[in-house]
Every structure is written in structure tokens, then in C-alpha cells.
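Internal ticket - ligand job 445, manganese (II) ion:
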Amino acid sequence: MSTIPDLASLHALGPAQQPTYPDRAAVDKAVAKLRTMPPLVFAGECDDLTSKIAAVARGEAFMLQGGDCAETFEGVTADNVRNKLRVLLQMAVVLTYAASVPVVKVGRLAGQYAKPRSSDLETRDGVTLPAYRGDAVNGFEFTPEARVPNPQRLVDVYHASASTLNLVRAFVTGGYADLRQVHTWNTDFVRSSPVGQQYEQLAGEIERALTFMKAIGADPDEFHRVDFHSSHEALVLEYEHAMTRIDSRTDLPYDVSGHFVWIGERTRQLSGAHVELLSHIRNPIGVKLGPTTTPDDAIALAQRLNPDNTAGRLTFITRFGAGKIRDGLPHLIEKVTASGLEVAWICDPMHGNTFEASSGYKTRRFDDVIEEVQGFFDVHRALGTWPGGVHVELTGDDVTECVGGGEELTDMDLSSRYESVCDPRLNRVQSLELSFLVAEMLRQA
Ligand code: PEP
Ligand code: MN
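stdout (C-alpha cells):
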């Protein structure tokens, strides 16, 4: 299937979760501009990631996918990008070293700007306005001007993603991600925490191993750079369609807005526009599967999205909730596996565990997050299948958005540094704690 369906035919499918733009001409102008922009990623890089995810599907690697629920244009700063990358590198090192498994590193980064919402509208103090749908669509500020969907923002997404990706590429190949830097990633507040101390010890062991390797004359390229990939939810059709191009090497379509794109829980309708568009692209892709997913739904999605049954092409990202995963997941995995379908299974322990705290903030309990990952590992172990990875919302900063963890954040702490414009993220200490706990689960898997 080397064709790209046209945008009008996608709209004819009645896509869910799309912005209602007031000015069609402005949309056409933004889309025309995007079509002229160079790709953000190279198709060959997407193929490399597919091969890596194939190793995940075979049980030979583990995938770490993480970043903001919603990136913001304001958040595109050197510090912010570095902090997110740094916590992901620390987590990856913990997982790789403590569990001796290769880790495929994927950021919810450089493109994660559009959000599905449960309601089109938001009401505050009797005033009703369009809901915030991410910086790709409208502004977070609660004013009529900010909340009008503005298609120029799609062009801004492109530029914000390009700046972010450029910095990430510089960091991961230019020395920052060098393994000899493991100690220096452990800076400021995290260093003094108990988990920071635990990390310090592990970093010391890695450093000794590296010194030994160097002494015997081994200093491979892998010590000095890492492979890092971008990903986001493919949600706004105008953007994803404009960024879908025919690769000159293979004559096949790729969505060159990111290495990996996924379909969200709210847009995975089998005959919907998102499934249709992503069925045509060659990138590795994901689909979120919530607790209402039947085995037949999952099988039909796999057949539609990966008709050749290519390993690494399709990742199922389950997000059941801590209380539902042990009952709901086994049936799904069993039927999909029995059908002979090649999929990588990843656990999103965030989206089934969101609730409103007494203080009014949207939050998640660290213990629920861990309990869902533990349930995921236990289910896979019982079935003899491979728990392929985790998909988490996190930030490199010291925010107070999720309760619990070693710092024992409470409802009352949430107001002190709640910065997410959408879902609550694990902070840097909580993220590192999660990586040690997951490493332990992996060691036993
Ligand atoms: C998300 O990943 O931020 C999200 C909205 O997830 P889901 O589609 O699983 O609800
Ligand atoms: Mn989210």
C-alpha cells in the first residue's frame, strides 16, 4: 500500500477529536505551508526503530517511552529539554544495568502537542469556552481569544518540534549522553534523595566497568552516544497528513513528523480516520488499548494496521488501571497471541489511574502506577509472554503532580508546583524510583 489517502477522504470518515476551525482558508494555508517543510525525521531512522521494537516483540529488549502528557511551546527551552532527556537517560541506564537488557529509548517529545478531550467545552464560574486541546490547537489561557482553534499553531508545532529534536540530537550524539557522564546526570535535588544515592552507587559500578574496559583497550562507539527516538499521538489529521511523505528510497509513505506515532484510546475506531491514515504509513506505530477493548477489537486492529504481520511495526500500549489489569489483560494477550500476531506489549500505567484529589487537582498515586506495572509483569509472566516496556508521563523537574513516592507527596502538596497543562506527571525523583522498581521486576521476568 504505497498510496496516501487524501485529507478529504479522511474527513469523510468523521474523525473523532478534531478541532473545529472557524476559518477554512487559514487551515488550507497552514497545511500548504507544512507540506513544503523538510521532514523532521528520516524514513531510515523509522525503519531502525521498527527493528529495535521487533527485538522488544521477541523478548530481547525493553522499551522506555516517556515525556510530558502535553508539550507546550513555552516549554521549548534548553533547560526543559535537557531535564527531560536527562531523567530518561538515567532511567534507561538503571534499566539496562540493573536488568541487563537493551533499552529502546523513545521520548513523548518533539511533537506531543495535541490532546483528545472528554468534553468539547470547559465551564468555569458560569463561563463556557472551547476546551484546551493542546498547543497544536489553541491556547491554555481561559479567554475566548486563546481558546479559538488557530491553524497557524500547526506550523508552530513543526518549528517547536524541530528545535526540540535538534537539541536532543545534539545531546545524544555530542557527548552529553556519553556513558562516562552517568554521574553528572545525577544533579541537584535528586542527588540527595535516597533514590539519588542508590543511583550514585550504580553509576559508580558503571564507571568502574568503563575504566576496566578502557584499560583493556575496548572503547566502542556505544559508550559515547545513544539512540533516542521521538514519538507523539497522531491526532490532528491536518498535521499528520501534511507530514506524510513518500520516501524516495522505498517509494513508501512515512509520517516524518516523528519516529513513532500512536493512536489514542479515543480515536482507535476500526473504520475511523486515524486507523485509516496510520494503516498507510510505514513508521512503527502504537495503539492505546483501554479496559473496554475486546480481544476481537485488538485482533481486528492488528490485522488492519499490520496486515503483513511485520514484527516491530505494531505496539499495543495497554492502559487498564491498577484495579483492572489483572482481570482484563490476560484474555487480550491470550487471544492475540493465539492468533499468531506479532505485537510488542507496553504498559501505560498512567491513564487508567487518574483521579481528582480533594484539593481539586487531577492526580495519580505513585503506588497505583507501580501496582499496574507489577500487574502487567505478573500477567505476562503467567502467560509466558514478554512485558515489553513502559509508557509513562514524566518530567525532569521537581513538580508536585502525582501523590506518593519516596518523597511522600500528599494532596496538600499538589498546589506547590503543579505545572502540567494536562495530565499529572511523575517528577524526577518518582521517575527514577519507578525505574529501579521496574528494573527489579525485569530481573525477575
Ligand atoms: C495520552 O497518552 O496522553 C492519552 C490521552 O492517552 P489515552 O489515549 O490512553 O487516553
Ligand atoms: Mn496524558
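Auto-summary: The chain has a mean pLDDT of 96. The longest strand covers residues 62-67.
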